[in-house]
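Appendix B. Chain record.
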Amino acid sequence: MIKNIRECILVLFFILLLPILVPYSLLMDRVEKRKRRQLASRFICEQCGEVLGVEAIRLADERWDEMELQMMRIEEPVARVVRSRLLDAICPHCGCQYLYHKMEQTFLKRSEILGQEPADAEMKDRWYRI
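Structure tokens predicted for this chain:
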């Protein structure tokens, strides 16, 4: 009986917090995206010396969507998968791939972080089964 009451209180507490947590998480996501766009508009590519611009974020989003679709086709339909996004910007001039480092608020070259060439790393990103 006490266990059921505790579970009910916990569920009620979670339901009451939802109207606060959902808008907060949406707002924080929007703030992070804005930071990345602002950084991309002034970040200079290490490979070609051109400014990345907002186009780099759009290219990375499109490429990441393709990679996720490809992995969904490969995965078993019942498997739950946690995906760590490892592509945040692609230079529209030379194709160099970057990851956003949240603590330093900068882009880092993807090949340096993963320790391999970007072409080889595309399907070897961090895909974990739960």
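Further analysis of this model is presented in Appendix C.
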